[in-house]
Amino acid sequence: MALGVLMALISYAMNFAIGRVVRAHKWLYREVGDGHLLRYLSWTVYPVALLSFSSGFSQSITPFSGGSGLPELKTMLSGVVLEDYLDIKNFGAKVVGLSCTLATGSTIFLGKVGPFVHLSVMISAYLGRVRAKTMGESQNKAKEIEMLAAAAAVGVATVFAAPFSGVLFSIEVMSSHFSVWNYWRGFFAATCGAFMFRLLAVFNSEQETITSIYKTRFRVDVPFDLPEIFFFVALGKPSYAALAALILASITYPPGVGRFMASRLSMAEHLRTLFDNNSWALMTRNSSPPWPAEPDPQNLWFEWYHPRFTIFGTLAFFLVMKFWMLILATTIPMPAGYFMPIFIIGAAIGRLLGEALSIAFPEGIVAGGEVNPIMPGGYALAGAAAFSGAVTHTISTALLAFELTGQIVHALPVLMAVLAANVISQNCQPSFYDGTIMAKKLPYLPWIRGRKIGSHPVSVEHFMNSTLTILAKDMPLEEVIKAVTSTDVAQFPLVETRESQILVGIVERTHLVQALQTEPASWAPGQQCCLQDVLAGGCPTQPVTLQLSPETSLYQTHTLFDLLTLQTLFVTSRGRAVGSVSWVELKKAISTLINPPAPK
Amino acid sequence: MALGVLMALISYAMNFAIGRVVRAHKWLYREVGDGHLLRYLSWTVYPVALLSFSSGFSQSITPFSGGSGLPELKTMLSGVVLEDYLDIKNFGAKVVGLSCTLATGSTIFLGKVGPFVHLSVMISAYLGRVRAKTMGESQNKAKEIEMLAAAAAVGVATVFAAPFSGVLFSIEVMSSHFSVWNYWRGFFAATCGAFMFRLLAVFNSEQETITSIYKTRFRVDVPFDLPEIFFFVALGKPSYAALAALILASITYPPGVGRFMASRLSMAEHLRTLFDNNSWALMTRNSSPPWPAEPDPQNLWFEWYHPRFTIFGTLAFFLVMKFWMLILATTIPMPAGYFMPIFIIGAAIGRLLGEALSIAFPEGIVAGGEVNPIMPGGYALAGAAAFSGAVTHTISTALLAFELTGQIVHALPVLMAVLAANVISQNCQPSFYDGTIMAKKLPYLPWIRGRKIGSHPVSVEHFMNSTLTILAKDMPLEEVIKAVTSTDVAQFPLVETRESQILVGIVERTHLVQALQTEPASWAPGQQCCLQDVLAGGCPTQPVTLQLSPETSLYQTHTLFDLLTLQTLFVTSRGRAVGSVSWVELKKAISTLINPPAPK
């Protein structure tokens, strides 16, 4: 509940601040006069300044704050620990950086889903630590991961104020399986967030005072020294950000090329106009509306129309330009989400098809004896859901489209479009998030299809790492030290005797090194002190709670690692430690299976 | 795809047949004349006959066809094998029985969700077997379970023609976790089903010929002998069903008590009227509509009105009566679903509250400076979702409410009602399906909350079954036979020697008994033949792919059993077989933890 309410407050405050900045920009652009140079400058300086600041500021605090954060979170949810990634001190950097990115509006054309999920997970990790401290409980890794999964759901849900699709989308993107418990917690927190968000909106429209109380109450505590802020100038990254922002802003300059791509509309207005019911092509066939000096709030879609280019020209031009502009924008190191731009591009694709159909069948298509005119807005809805679903490999984008529009009447066609898009994209490429994980070389467990692997008789003995550094209780200390220094693994299997090799436990490297360093007196040469003494002297060992056999199949092992978010397991045969399996071995085994080495 | 299309065909055919039967009943009731006795008989004979036939017929084919089937499927999805439960020969019994049950309409007040899920799973199991046979593949248990999960989703989805909530509902009810893969397959199959269903409706309304072709094409092949049908008379159960049907039909007789509970409406009409926007209490405050001789299709809600009882009286009476009538109906052994009645009762509860509020605030409640009249239909929607969500412990009933109404504008209030209902009901009682599982004494794994158990230091050694019947390779055959006959476990742990007790594999009871019986010559007394020889002679052993340690925690073990749908695991300590853990031990350990034994 705390998480939901906090995220709603943050989302609301950010929307409020961004709205003010955008309004100021619009005012400046309107009031600056008619000179083209001044207008051009007022159009471009804003995003250039905001983006350099966003990029430089957030990068100077922490390099983790760039990008969407979803790929890293996906990695963390599979059990990998990324140090400091959820540290609360990144929070300020991400909030400020994201606000600046979003305040550039449709010029830079980036969204906020991914960063919001990251923010939500940060807060949840922080709340978890606070709770553990106050309750005096030790932290439980499994519980932490559960909490992160729920927090991810809250993040998506607060962005769209759409609890259903938020929860489902985050589940689909984040994991290959999920427990119904998490789903519950996600729904509860997301509902709290959505409710709070709505409540704030009501208060705000009713009485300005409550908003201002809230404004002064809500402070983002940025725990870093002020001089650090200006340190970023040395990083050089802002200059790249500024250059990219200049290019993007110049292209979208409304009296220039921007005229052909509806660049005076905000991203929300893009969506609203694209989902419009009426066919623009039919409406402009006989009359051509003039290009207003200001976007007309009643007829925002005029922005999409150009007398010579027509609707089709602007839509196609929008698609082509925004496509490479989005690629350029993703290269800027700053907090930004990539879901919304993709959703809008999908809507434009759908709209293009819908308008074309409405020209081809101006009377509508005959079905069941009745003639219904074609609604290009429906095609735009399906296009948005299908394209974003294909890029992220999810189906819940269909539900998101319904929650955004408040109507679920198009359920069947939209769902079918999303399914078809998924079938094609899943066979051709990894999802956007998986692709980023691979590109960033984050650890990940490849997803294997049951069909491909279930029938292969590959078992653990074929791919396990059998060159283990084993510690035996009767090992002399010299050998122990040699073994420890010869490798850098984090855990050592502990066996009863060098002869029997019966696995009895696990020794953590850190504990062992500590124990060896604190007791230097007892291992004078010639005294024949062995590992047993060090263990008795206070080095803790962990029991082996789960062990594989050489006969366990690859499929079973993969399921186990995937479901239980494991990192390493030891393999025993008749009680003897014979090997270990970690992600590295699993990944290698799977890739060998998919692309078998050429026979010599 | 085949599954979705088949289920749509079945659902459509059943709807068609049921519609005809119901229409015939209505016609009979209308045409039979004004005599009360004749009318009463025409009202009651139909359901009595249908129900006795439904109960007797389905029970004579198989006792498995009674009830909803969801609890049994839930048990199967957790890995337990219920023999013959998915046999295709039950299919005919279930289809015919369910059609008869549903044809009784609102008199008996039962639904079809559960049975449809059972039907869908039966077909999917059958298709799976056909596929395995034609492809020459061996059957894979994990894959089978995945397919069953997807089929369950299709079953729910085809009933409501609501793919989203269908898939989610089945997931929530069926399992404590689920893989995103299954969710996909469920969506795909459910969409195929919903599309086919829609297509059939279009064909049917356009040209009667296609329906009739379809009618003749679709045949339910009932694989049993005709005389068996009449065997049910001896079972005695139909007489109970007939008696219960007589009571239920008598109570709902419209000129009698039925007048006060809108019994002339079908279940679908109950729902449609309860979701009506206008406040009936306000509309009938000054004028009282007459009770029409026939339900007026334009104003079906008149059925809910009685001049002296008022709307509140009929709604409250409906709730009280339907509540115990539903309990009575559930005791009849025949195929029937219990979700729809609960959904309608919830809608009536919500409607009652909504009507009361509309009387208390006839002008509407002031919010944000505007006055909006209260819409009791919205309360009915929330009530239906909340009550059915509370009974089944699911949240997706909220989504179902939206898919049924085609609007998602009430998202937040409905979701909040469902969450609140869930919080209360989950703390007070098991879900309807879990309760049935317990009452039927089906095997199940209790659900443990992380909080309660995560912090308890209970590990496997505290609760494992340590009185194992262990077979050693060097055991003389006499001892082996003694061991095998002394117990009836299905699997024996096989150890290397009697002395070392190192676990090397698992021997199935059936294989061992077979091997012992086929080689009686070699174990003449005095020859000192041992188990090793039997194994070498062709008795297969299975490798131990996963083993527990005495130090594994209860929480970890539970997660493992739950996620991997395991039945039994052996416990080894330093390679020696020391015990085994199955559901029985786990259940006992969990119940001890929740209700600790009183200290002496």
Automatic annotation (TrEMBL), chains A, B:
CDD domains: CBS_pair_voltage-gated_CLC_euk_bac (cd04591). Pfam families: CBS, Voltage_CLC. Keywords: Calcium, CBS domain, Cell membrane, Chloride, Chloride channel, Ion channel, Ion transport, Membrane, Metal-binding, Repeat, Transmembrane, Transmembrane helix, Transport. InterPro entries: CBS_dom, CBS_dom_sf, Cl-channel_core, Cl_channel-K, Cl_channel_volt-gated, ClC. It is a multi-pass membrane protein. Gene3D superfamilies: CBS-domain, Clc chloride channel. The keyword RNA-binding does not apply. It is found in: Basolateral cell membrane; Membrane. GO terms for molecular function: metal ion binding; voltage-gated chloride channel activity. Residues 464-522 form the CBS domain. SUPFAM superfamilies: CBS-domain pair, Clc chloride channel. The chain crosses the membrane at residues 108-127, 148-171, 183-203, 224-251, 309-329, 336-359. It catalyses: chloride(in) = chloride(out); nitrate(in) = nitrate(out); bromide(in) = bromide(out); iodide(out) = iodide(in). One of its GO terms (cellular component) is chloride channel complex. PANTHER family: CHLORIDE CHANNEL PROTEIN 2, CHLORIDE CHANNEL PROTEIN CLC-KB. Homodimer. Interacts with BSND. Belongs to the chloride channel (TC 2.A.49) family. This is Chloride channel protein. It comes from Cricetulus griseus.
